[in-house]
Amino acid sequence: MDYPPPKSDRMGKSRLFRIFLILGSVFMILLIIIYWDDVGATHFYLHTTISGPHTSRQPPEGNTDPKPKPDTDKEPSFLSDIDAFVNQFLIGTADPTEQVRGEPLASDANQNQSNESKSDEKFVPRREWKIHLTPIAQELRQRQEDRRQMVRGLCSGNSTLDFPGKNRTFDEIPNKELDHLIVDDRHGIIYCYVPKVACTNWKRIMIVLSESLLVDGVPYQDPLDVPTELIHNSSLHFTFNKFWKRYGKFSRHLMKIKLKKYTKFLFVRDPFVRLISAYRNKFEQENEDFYKRFAVVMLKRFGNYSDPPASVVDAFAAGIRPTFSNFIQYLLDPNTEKEAPFNEHWRQMYRLCHPCQINYDFVGKLETLDDDAEHLLRILRVDNVVQFPTSHRNRTVTSWERDWFANIPFESRRELYKLYEADFRLFGYAKPEKLLHE
Predict the structure, then answer these.
(1) d(CA 29, CA 22)
(2) How far is it, in rounded angstroms, from Cα 355 to Cα 180?
(3) What's the pTM value of the predicted model, to 2 decimals?
(4) What does DSSP say about strands 189-192 and 263-268: parallel, antiparallel, or unpaired?
């Protein structure tokens, strides 16, 4: 005959259970107090993409570790160790009831088993979720606030800075001038790309997030896997200037809704260094298109070549190419803008992204690219989906400015500054006094 456990044992177990319950509740309350985002002590969130889990193709052979390697120079903190520990156990913890695209249903398992030998298709596990226990550094938050305040202040009516288009409304911007605003509806992001400011890698990011490019029916997961020749293909990027064809008379209204609700960002660069980079990329390398459209004009007007070679190959073989001085003369020539607007690679950044009409949430700079990219991806809550690609640093640096401008007359330098003054001031770049005065 079984006897019930003594009353004292039952009371002891009940008391022990209550103690554990109380301790667990206290621990959860403390955790909430410490890490609750609204308190501002830190940034604690569990995040996924709006669209749920994604799949992607396997990385190509020879690229088994496409993700950037961690910065071993940084001293790890206690909370960063916790980040890594927690996230280690969250890989593949998406809702098990959700089916990964391309994954066979259980009812089809037997049928598909016979076809396995016919296909070597592999399925990539669901992307992991991330928990961030470490806060975004206050220094980075303040940096962004300072940059946004700078733009807002100079765009206000009280500012003495004046430049073409400053006071027009968003509705007054022609559609053709909105072609640099890339929209990702899946994650609620708008990116205004500026050529020569890491835009190739940010376009890679946007392609991965929007899943606008598929291989074997599966979207890319690693930005570095996106074929280089397709990155700048305009058909892969849904921009504001395409709204008219899709939405007709409702396009402007929808743009304003998205501008209000989506997170908007751009990246900028020292204006003079950007010009040097554009010249080096387009005129010091064999580029047939830029040679015919721009270099021939520069050579005829400013290079004393009445009949320059017809192709860039012939020109380079003969040692003929426009100098940096010819390039600056071309930019300062009033006839250049009369014939056509500046090419996007040297058009002023404010003309590409309209910061006085669009209230950007994030202003990144090439000079602080690593920190800004990591900060932005956390703000967007997509750092569980993509990482900013590592790349070779652009060799054009500010310290080279004096060498590049050595043969440019001081008067031309001052005219050039006036041409790009709005970019310098809006985005917080110091006036290059040493370059402008003897």
Answers:
(1) 11
(2) 13
(3) 0.73
(4) parallel
Contacts 24+ apart (CB under 8 A), 288-297: 288/312, 288/313, 291/315, 293/343, 294/322, 294/330, 294/343, 295/321, 295/322, 297/330
Domain ranges of the chain: 138-272+343-436
The answer to whether the beta carbons of residues 362 and 265 sit under 8 Å apart is yes
Contacts of residue 221, Cβ cutoff 8 Å, sequence gap at least 6? 54, 55, 56, 57, 124, 127, 208
Tokens of residue 378, six digits: 């956390």
Count CB-CB contacts under 10 A for residue 213: 18
Residue (of 282, 409, 392, 399) closest to 344 by Cα position: 282
d(CA 434, CA 438): 7
As a whole number of angstroms, the distance between CA 83 and CA 134 comes to 7
pLDDT in tens, the chain (438 residues): 555 555 556 666 677 777 777 877 766 765 555 444 333 333 333 333 333 333 333 333 334 333 333 343 444 454 544 444 444 444 333 333 233 333 333 334 344 444 433 333 333 334 455 677 788 999 999 999 999 999 999 999 889 999 999 999 999 999 999 999 999 999 999 999 999 999 999 999 999 999 999 988 999 999 999 999 999 999 999 999 999 999 999 999 999 999 999 999 999 999 999 999 999 999 999 999 999 999 999 999 999 999 999 999 999 999 999 999 999 999 999 999 999 999 999 999 999 999 999 999 999 999 999 999 999 999 999 998 899 998 665 556 667 788 999 999 999 999 999 999 999 999 999 999 999 986
Q: Token pair for residue 251?
A: 């396009």
Record the tokens describing residue 426, joined without a space. 């809006």
Q: Is-contact 383 377, C-beta < 8 A?
A: yes
Q: How many residues does the chain have?
A: 438
Q: Is 198 left (phi over 0), alpha (psi -120 to 50) or beta?
A: left
